[in-house]
């Protein structure tokens, strides 16, 4: 997704825009830290896609997406939680040092169906809380 970091729409988004249907796109794990997060990014990229990793003298930013095919926010978040939970001690220390640890759930808007919903199970919410992360929701408009 591209809240704060510029990135063009993916093929998946283009298809959704053309179809004019509300659809779940993906979940991005967004990280921000004033400290080094290179070990964390390295551990996660073994089984995930690093969409963005940037650093300057003030902070480090990363956006990571599950490499597994997921068709719901619940499955995507649980997959990313598994990856975080299996990180090395050095990576987990960096995880705890991040000032932003957010699962950003992306949806493309549309004209159909009339009502659309996706549930996040209570076990998933507890898991998110246990690892000290948060949730954001990003809605992308229909391109006309």
Task: Describe this protein with a few key phrases.
144 residues; alpha+beta; Alpha-Beta Plaits; 5-stranded mixed beta sheet; globular; disordered N terminus
Describe the protein.
- The chain is α+β, with helices and mostly antiparallel strands and 144 residues long.
- It has a single domain (11-138), classed as Alpha-Beta Plaits (2-Layer Sandwich), CATH 3.30.70.
- It is built from five helices and five strands.
- It has helices at residues 11-19, 38-45, 73-85, 89-97, 122-130; strands spanning 23-33, 48-55, 60-66, 100-108, 134-140.
- A five-stranded mixed β-sheet has the order 2-3-1-4-5.
- Strand 2 (48-55) and strand 3 (60-66) form a beta hairpin.
Summarize the structure.
This protein has 144 residues and is an alpha+beta fold.
What do the pLDDT scores average to?
88
Could you give the order of the helices and strands?
HEHEEHHEHE
Largest sheet: 5 strands, mixed
Helix-residue proportion:
25-40%
**Widest beta sheet: strand line-up:** 2-3-1-4-5
The whole-angstrom Rg is 15 Å
- The secondary structure category is alpha+beta
Termini distance? 19 Å
Annotated CATH architecture = 2-Layer Sandwich
Strand content: 25-35%
Overall 3D geometry?
globular
The CATH topology name reads Alpha-Beta Plaits
Helix and strand arrangement:
Elements: H1 11-19, E1 23-33, H2 38-45, E2 48-55, E3 60-66, H3 73-85, H4 89-97, E4 100-108, H5 122-130, E5 134-140
Parallel strand pairs: 4-5
Antiparallel strand pairs: 1-3, 1-4, 2-3
Helix pairs in contact: 2-4
């Amino acid at each position: 997704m591209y809240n704060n970091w510029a990135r063009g729409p993916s093929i998946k988004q283009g298809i959704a825009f053309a179809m004019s249907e509300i659809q779940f796109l993906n979940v991005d794990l967004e990280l921000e830290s004033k400290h080094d997060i290179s070990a964390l990014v390295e551990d996660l990229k073994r089984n995930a896609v690093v969409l963005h990793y940037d650093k300057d003298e003030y902070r480090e930013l990363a956006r990571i997406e599950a490499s597994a095919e997921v068709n719901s926010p619940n499955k995507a978040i649980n997959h990313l939680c598994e990856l975080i939970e299996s990180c090395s001690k050095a990576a987990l220390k960096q995880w705890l040092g991040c000032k932003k640890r957010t699962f950003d759930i992306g949806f493309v808007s549309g004209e159909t169906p009339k009502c659309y919903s996706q549930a996040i199970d209570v076990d998933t919410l507890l898991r998110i809380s246990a690892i000290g992360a948060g949730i954001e929701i990003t809605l992308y408009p229909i391109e006309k």
